[in-house]
Specification:
Elements lengths: L13 E7 L6 E7 L7 E11 L4 H4 L16 E8 L11 E4 L10 H4 L23 E5 L3 E3 L6 H19 L8 E5 L5 H10 L3 E6 L5 H7 L3 E4 L5 H7 L3 E6 L4 H7 L3 E9 L11 H5 L4 E4 L5 H14 L5 E5 L3 H9 L6 E5 L1
Parallel strand pairs: 8-9, 8-11, 9-10, 11-12, 12-13, 14-15
Antiparallel strand pairs: 1-2, 3-4, 3-6, 3-15, 4-5, 5-7
Helix pairs in contact: 3-4, 3-9
Length: 348
């Protein structure tokens, strides 16, 4: 599918962009003309853009078919600045965002069945077209998310990927209020997973490596903290009766594999932490107790709006470090270091 590129408007003030010129290259801060939206598109004046671990797919060229130079970013919050022909339901000045789901083809089998999140030709901001590491961005109208006024741009941006992924995975996991739900990893995804799970009424067991996150996990809403470096986490979960769901957020297939024996009968390991090495499990581990392993991607713009509304109602908020756009390279390195607490957001 051809990538979307907006025509540049003539004689306009240039904007700043943080782009990657080729796979593996450092970020460059360059000026471009502010783009003009085409039919069915809108232009967003970007106020904030989260840096996600998945931006490495663009930075390092790990997603096939990316055209360079490319501007990453799929946690975008801003203001609708201009609308193209055929756009009527959204108005200039409206607060909007764009997440991982950046548009669908509406013609593949999945789209025709309403399963837009699994579109065969899903468009992803920062991969299919230029994303949010820039002052103005063009996106298809079907990618838009309305942002509630009570959430700041900096708060909303990470909720459009890390937030929706944890919220959506948990609400579709089959866990019910009162169930034991384990959250593996207290990082960019996990610190939100603990909060959402607590607000859903689950008994949350937070699993981290080392004792340093114990107090934070309890503050975020965990009932139990399990240090997987000091103890066998699966055995500890079984002492609590076994987990109905384990939300695996840290991108460590080895750590995920070690937790499978912590599932209760009919328990489910829900995988949202993206790693490239295999999860190891024996057929007997799955057969005994009828356990399952399921992967979960983020969701549609409608799911993002559900996430934002629930965060607004419940008080769930991401913990954030902010950097100016001009320091995109430094901000990206901070996120990749694993030492950020816990989401890194660029501000324009």
């Amino acid at each position: 599918m051809s990538t979307m590129r907006a025509a540049a408007a003539p004689n306009v003030t240039p904007m700043k962009v943080a782009q990657v010129s080729k796979p593996g290259a450092d970020f460059e801060i360059v000026e471009r003309e502010i783009p003009t939206p085409g039919a069915g598109q809108v232009r967003i004046k970007v106020q904030a853009c989260g840096i996600c671990h998945s931006d490495a797919l663009t930075k390092e060229g790990e997603w096939p078919g990316i055209q360079y130079p490319r501007v990453p970013g799929h946690e975008v919050a801003g203001v609708l600045d201009e609308v193209g022909d055929g756009v009527s339901a959204w108005k200039k000045g409206q607060r909007v965002g764009v997440g991982w789901h950046g548009g669908q083809d509406n013609t593949c089998r999945e789209c025709r069945r309403g399963d837009f999140g699994n579109c065969r030709n899903l468009q992803i901001p920062g991969i299919s077209y230029d994303g949010g590491y820039q002052q103005y961005m063009v996106a298809p109208v079907e990618a838009l998310v309305a942002i509630p006024n009570s959430l700041s741009d900096v708060e909303a941006a990470p909720l459009l990927c890390a937030g929706i992924t944890t919220y959506n995975a948990l609400r579709h996991s089959g866990a019910l209020p009162g169930d034991l739900v384990a959250v593996q990893g207290i990082g960019g995804l996990g610190h939100l997973g603990v909060q959402f799970g607590n607000k859903f009424g689950y008994k949350i067991a937070a699993i981290g490596r080392g004792p340093e996150n114990a107090a934070l996990a309890k503050k975020l809403g965990a009932s139990v903290y399990i240090d997987s470096k000091a103890t066998n986490a699966a055995e500890e979960l079984q002492k609590l009766g076994g987990a109905r769901v384990i939300l695996a957020t840290a991108p460590s297939s080895k750590a995920m594999s070690e937790l499978i024996d912590g599932l209760a009968p009919n328990g489910k390991l829900v995988v949202i932490g993206a790693a490239f090495d295999p999860i190891e499990v024996t057929p007997i581990q799955l057969i005994n107790g009828s356990r399952t392993i399921q992967g979960w991607a983020s969701g549609t713009p409608a799911d993002s709006e559900d996430t934002l509304r629930f965060a607004e109602l419940s008080g769930v908020r991401p913990m954030i470090e902010t950097y100016p756009l001009e320091k995109a390279g430094e901000a990206y390195a901070r996120m990749m270091s694993g030492k950020a607490e816990f989401r890194v957001v660029l501000t324009m």
